[in-house]
Design goal:
single chain, 100 residues, mainly beta, four-stranded antiparallel sheet, two-stranded antiparallel sheet, 6 strands, elongated
């Protein structure tokens, strides 16, 4: 198992971020694509915003754990976004996480 950083990651698809609960009743499952929404002076106010919102925040260098399992592509553990529990290979994890 190794700690890996993605730098930069960029914008994320709407996902469940551990420890975040939205008070907006229109976002019942507390999905988030604006991880730093608490800083309302710099970023958009809501946890979930339009993908073309110029004030939408992005992740710069999050980390995840890579599980080797003796294969070419590691499996991923990420408790923050998802969560991802070691059942997905890296390419599937990236496809689910990053908003192109």
């Amino acid at each position: 198992m190794k700690i890996k950083y993605m730098k930069p990651l960029g914008y994320i698809n709407p996902t469940a971020l551990i420890g975040r609960e939205d008070t907006d009743p229109t976002n019942g499952d507390s999905r988030c694509d604006n991880p730093f929404h608490g800083d309302k002076k710099q970023f958009a106010a809501g946890m979930l915003c339009r993908s073309d919102d110029l004030k939408r925040s992005e992740f710069n260098s999050p980390f995840y754990l890579a599980l080797g399992r003796n294969e070419d592509e590691p499996y991923v553990l990420d408790a923050c976004a998802g969560p991802h529990v070691g059942t997905e290979k890296f390419s599937k994890y990236i496809g689910a996480l990053i908003d192109p």
